[in-house]
Amino acid sequence: MAKEPLDFQRLRQRMVKEQIEARGIKDRRVLEAMLKVERHKFVPLSLQPFAYQDSPLPIGEGQTISQPYIVALMTELLELKGTEKVLEIGTGSGYQAAILAELAKEVYTIEILPGLAKRSSQLLAELGYLNVKVKCADGYLGWPELAPFDAIIVTCAAKEVPPPLIEQLAEGARLVIPVGTDYQELKLFIKREGELEERTIIPVIFVPMRRK
Ligand code: SAH
Predict the structure, then answer these.
(1) Does the C-beta of 138 come closer than 6 Å to ligand 1?
(2) CA 167, CA 148: separation in Å to the nearest integer?
(3) Per-residue pLDDT of the chain (212 residues; tens, 9 = 90+)
(4) Does residue 109 line the site of ligand 1, with CB under 6 A?
(5) DSSP 3-state assignment of 177?
(6) What are phi and psi of 65, to 5 degrees?
(7) Which of 50, 93, 143, 157 could form a disulfide with 65 if both were Cys (CB 3.0 to 4.6 A apart)?
(8) 201 phi and psi, to 5 degrees?
(9) Cα-based torsion angle of the residue sequence 154, 19, 62, 46 in order, rounded to the nearest 10 degrees
(10) 0.85 exceeded by pTM
């Protein structure tokens, strides 16, 4: 494989320092993962020069890769230590899945659009992520055969928290999800003794969760 041009590495270092650390992300493991994963490989070729900008970018089929800070924030909220089985809803480009794969033991990710599911699955395999599995399905239903999960992250906005996802949380597990339609809020739920603890984090803008 050709050596990565140095300026992508430098752009990534700047992204982490100026967009992510500067806004208060502290988890060393999250910062390391954001430094390591080559975000430009997850965007269309023509957009690679903008891959480390402080914004979401289009990835085709009307979908977007989230802003780097939002990826870092959502990941930090999961408090991953390296032993977890994680479920992601909304694979999109596969970038968030790659970040999770750096930080958890196993990652299962569901994408509803076949084109994106195929592309991200191929890319993640090419990049050597053996601990990620992509499935094309409606993520509203979760992945019951593999439940329970230690963490669930949803990267499309749901009108309400899908009940199957709550059921599929292990005791002590965390769910990070944007909730709402026109106005959306990023929420963190923690399952404790069967009860859900809820925290509202910040207002966000995500593409809507669709149903098959
Ligand atoms: N995590 C992605 C962000 C993708 S944007 C990344 O890092 O690039 C949200 C994605 O959710 C889109 O690809 C969209 O097709 C997908 N999506 C929407 N509704 C869904 C559903 N019900 N189940 C699974 N994926 C869904």
Answers:
(1) yes
(2) 8
(3) 566 666 999 999 999 999 999 999 999 999 999 999 999 999 999 999 999 999 999 999 999 999 999 999 999 999 999 999 999 999 999 999 999 999 999 999 999 999 999 999 999 999 999 999 999 999 999 999 999 999 999 999 999 999 999 999 999 999 999 999 999 999 999 999 989 999 999 999 999 999 86
(4) no
(5) strand
(6) -90, 135
(7) 93
(8) -95, -70
(9) -140
(10) yes
Nearest residue by C-alpha to atom 4 in ligand 1 = 92
Question: Is 113 touching ligand 1 by the criterion CB < 6 Å?
Answer: yes
Q: Respond yes or no: is residue 121 known to be catalytic.
A: no
- DSSP E strands, 155-204: 169-180, 184-192, 195-204
Query: In whole angstroms, how far apart are CA 55 and each of 58, 64, 99, 121, 187?
Result: 10, 10, 17, 24, 20
DSSP 24-70: T---HHHHHHHHHS-GGGGS-GGGGGGTTSSS-EEEETTEEEPPHHH
Residue found under tokens 């999960």: 149
